Amino acid sequence: MTPFGLRLRELRRDKGVTQKQMAAALGVSAAYLSALEQGRRGKPGWDFVQRVIAYFNVIWDDADELRRLARVSHPRVVVDTAGLCPEATLFANLVAEKIATIAREDVAALIHELELRARPGK
Description:
This protein is mostly helical. About 65% of the residues lie in helices and about 0% in strands. About 10% of the residues are buried.
């Protein structure tokens, strides 16, 4: 499951909407929504995300967060380390090799650390 798929499922369930109902309203198939929720589809396009935002009447910061989640929700990531230091290539390869064995709380801690370091002024 991707971060966007999880949030999409939460929004849909909170509103008591079935995949079939939502799919009809957004002009997509229920199979597409199911695949998005389960992380079996690539990240959704801008137009689709905008339709979801309008459908659920998501506003301001919540809409920005949904757009951000869509950007970071490709289930098959490609990392290009060409031109970076050897440690970056090692890091990318270790993550790719070990991701399935890293505990969820450790993944959360790593995400938190990376987000802290990515803030402006750090």
